[in-house]
# Entry
Amino acid sequence: MLVEFAHDEAAGAVVLVLATGLGLVWANVATGSYQGFWGREVRFDLIGVHVGETYAEVVNDGLMAIFFFVVGLEIKRELVVGELRDRRAAALPFFAAIGGMAVPALLYLALNAGDAGAPRGWAIPMATDIAFVMGVVALLGRRVPPPLRLFLLTLAIVDDIGAIIVIAAFYTDQLAVAWLAAALVLVAVIVAMRRLGVRPIWAYALVGLPMWFCVLESGVHATIAGVVLGLLTPARPFSGRSVLEELEHVFHPISAFVVVPIFAVANTGIVLSRASVSEALGSTVAWGVVLGLLVGKPVGITAATALGRALKVGRLPDGLEIRHVVGGGIVAGIGFTVSLFVTELSFDPGPVNDAAKLAILTASVLAAAVGSLVLLRIASRDQRR
# Structure
């Protein structure tokens, strides 16, 4: 399952690069068409409530719930039957992930503390894009020690857990208690259905869709509904069926090859001009994101790993040394999908939003290039030894 997961993520990274290129070309060649399309509004009524959202919001609030549903499935699998089940083995990557989230956020805040509104983007450089990281690791092949692949995958999953908690806790609009209570009631219904042994997946979907809508209306970001549904999925065989594996088999390709590429097209349409580049170069938000991803990530991951070893929280697997963690930490600075997502939650459309996105793209490309070079150099030195 781990090999299949890594392969899907690597292939998804290629599609994601193409989708990003499409978004950039479309926005720069036909700016009016791009903005007009994603700004078009769609209206619908559900259970007597009128909802109007732009195409971009439909992607970010609706389709991305599928992405976070898959993330929830992955987390549940790893916690129950995967690498995070062995708390001792997972302790060091967990420690590293915390450092890799905390240091970038602190760097960002240090640069933006005095700028009104800018500190809201502190979570942007916290994210590690699992698809791109696994893509880089796959391209490097045997030059990357297998234990480092597992270390980075575990770290990225813990990073996803952190991102979900941050989104739920810090990027929630004004709370509508009645809608949130309705969502919790529907969660209780799903739990009761599991206890009663209800087997058809469509029955859970009939409850899950209204639950997503209630979360959307509650002020909590709607994608959290996807995570909750993923975490409620049984990881062990249920009534003789491996439900979680069935759902991953169906939804993981949809997420990797449909949802995330559409999200990339909808959210990477930055108009590249002398003015926009100049705006980004003079923006503390952009520099906070770049420094957070390029410097904060590797420093946080490496320092936390070293501290974890010193405190005997855990040990590095055989064949993995701290120099490998440094290279992997640089690659972990590829923060793309979730970083872009948090940018949309942090800033309204405009120059600051565009500057942050340009910083994410720049930092991610540099992290992939520099991290790959460092890992190749380490592999070459290991071969000579």
